Amino acid sequence: MEFHIKNMVCDRCIMVVQNDFENASIAIDSIALGKVSTVNKLVEAAKIQQLKQQLELHGFELLETEEAILSDAIKTEILNFVAQADMESEKLSVYLTHKLHKDYGVLSKHFSKYNDSTIERYLIKLKVEKAKQYIREGRFNFSEIAAQLGYHSLSHLSTQFKKETGVSLSEFKSNPDLQRNTLDKIL
Question: Which of 4, 8, 70, 136 could form a disulfide with 13 if both were Cys (CB 3.0 to 4.6 A apart)?
Fold first, then answer.
């Protein structure tokens, strides 16, 4: 049986969801961001209800409609796109079309309809959060961060960063009280 789960955005999420399945006595065959396949093709309704409750306690949700599943799959693939090392090597539209086997126009319309945001807007927000992460880690200077995130110039990153956060890159770097947003809350 296959379960689709909302708000799985990182490896820690996978560990928590895996633990929730174990607590509900549901054996997992495979697990990835947003998706869990079970060993058994049928799972008792009582176990599924217990699983739903466990997942909700940890901020997750079982997705049951095709619309919700596709919407979450798009988010997951955009997260994967931002997590990859070199975003300049491939356009997001090509990446999503390849990963989800659907025309980008269809994906874009679907995403906008179910999320009150465009794919492009969501991508910008994720890039800004990734920039915040890089700044906090101190591994890259601002120009290197811009290049890592696929920006053609530091000024483009700076403009989007300021628009999204209300502060400049330098202000964010110098103020440890300013925090990142959790990825599951971005949209």
Answer: 8
